[in-house]
């Protein structure tokens, strides 16, 4: 018979955050071993720009609620592993790319800007078990380069134009595996750099979106 103390401990265990399985897949052998160990799993191919940050942020939200081991591949650094996934699945390579595997076979893929809550919701609901408690995902979680840049601007070491140019370029080239919260915060100042196909001059005056310095200070506070 379960004692009250044991029941309390079981409840505490169920409520405690559960660490997400997030595995770097650096070689073809890593890919094979990961898929062998996890009958239901996903592979996330990380590219070289903010699309990766956005896509992983969406995935991170679902991993908090669902139990799904994820292997990630930084395609530029670990090209043989990325090519191996392409060979295994027969799917055209994209980055970012999310592929759901069951018993080593691809069941679902979604790519680039199509990695959205609307795309993932039905798949996770139908295929991926719900966690007993809240999950925690270890992301790259390094916003220090942004903090330094914003502090330089707030403290007067950068002009409005110089700050806007450097921030947007930094954000556009950021392929970190970030949480959805971080992505939303960092994208708040200037939006999606891909919207400015004619060049960053299309952003217009830095102050067009309101008092830039006040908005930057607010963002610094929220980032902590």
TrEMBL record:
GO terms for molecular function: toxic substance binding. It holds the Pfam family BrxC. Residues 1-20 are annotated as: Disordered. GO terms for biological process: bacteriocin immunity. Residues 146-223 form the Colicin D immunity protein domain. This is Thioredoxin. It comes from Deinococcus puniceus.
